[in-house]
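Before going further, learn to read the protein records used in this course. The integers have meaning only within a learned vocabulary of local backbone shapes. To see the layout at work, look at the sequence and tokens printed below.
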Amino acid sequence: MRTGKMEAAAEPLRSVRRLSRVLLFLSQCYILSGDENQLFSHLTESTEIPPYMMKCPSNGLCSRLPADCIECATNVSCTYGKPATFDCTVKPSVTCVDQDLKPQRNFIINMTCRFCWQLPETDYECSNSTTCMTVACPRQRYLTNCTVRDHIHCLGNRTFHKLLYCNWTGGYKWSTALALSITLGGFGADRFYLGQWREGLGKLFSFGGLGIWTLIDVLLIGVGYVGPADGSLYI
């Protein structure tokens, strides 16, 4: 009888012990999973490739690396427009060599002392605008973003704003417009071709302004004064 009572009293104790063991096991699993996640994230970060590495050739000459692959100290003593030397260091993960094919981290490059926005037009690329009027008086300009080419070195930001003249084309040919003005100008074919349908209808129903409007358009298209209706240049 006493034995049954003692077993009944010990049963809650066993349940508590089992529960504590389960909780201890779960806590250890949680800690281990957290360590694994940290280890995985650390490995991922250590093996992540920097975005600039896509432009950086491996084991090439350090002096010929693109500007995105190196960091150069500003030479405040250089004179504008004159050749100057700059101390440069390759960025992390970039490998390059010197003239003797030995690994190199620090080197010197020679370039002209000037800011990026002062470079010749051939040394940078700009986005074109298709909304401004190229045939206008005075000639219109538009504000655009320009980026220096990879292997060109300069001072300051490599991306900058610049005002450029409108110079885009919609695919209209000057020779075609002139030929239509000479042959079918009396029916407004030249104006229809250039997208100026109102003027084209006016010439069509007036028989080219009795020939006067046709002659004037031949002259205006010939000298390039009349252009496409979308404001683009001839090709």
Residues 61 and 100 are 10 Å apart (CA to CA). The longest strand covers residues 83-90. Helices lie at 2-47, 174-184, 189-193, 197-205, 207-210, 212-222. The chain is about 35% helix and 15% strand.
